[in-house]
Amino acid sequence: xxxxxxxxxxxxxxxxxxxxxxxxxxxxxxxxxxxxxxxxxxxxxxxxxxxxxxxxxxxxxxxxxxxxxxxxxxxxxxxxxxxxxxxxxxxxxxxxxxxxxxxxxxxxxxxxxxxxxxxxxxxxxxxxxxxxxxxxxxxxxxxxxxxxxxxxxxxxxxxxxxxxxxxxxxxxxxxxxxxxxx
Length: 182
What we know:
With 182 residues, this protein is mainly alpha-helical. 94% of the residues lie in helices and 0% in strands. The protein has three helices and no strands. α1 packs across α2 (25-160). It starts with a helix and ends with a helix.
């Protein structure tokens, strides 16, 4: 290689002193030859490092693609889980609403039934109260009538009967009243 460089410099020096000023084909050939040798040498020396570099880059890109795919799959799975949860919550909400409506209807029916029962009970109590008050009024009227009848009989008997008959009748009457009142 060093010899090639040496020859190339000699050729250029010899050419520079020559009289021909045309295209320096020999110089160009030597420079092209040196360039291709340099490229070949670089390829020979760096082929393993370049292959390793590009292999590493390919591996890194493959890993990045796999990570991205895994992340996409995880995101899709999470999205499906969220959608399932939302659907479950919607179904649960609908069930809860239906259950609440059913419970409200049952509660309404129970309250209506309790109100009916309470109304019947109040009516029965009112009827019982009326019956008791009626019996009290009848008893009071009987007592009042008896006392007026007694007073009237006493007056009429005292005018019409003698004292011995009067006492006898009063005793009988008092005994009968005791039996009736008792």
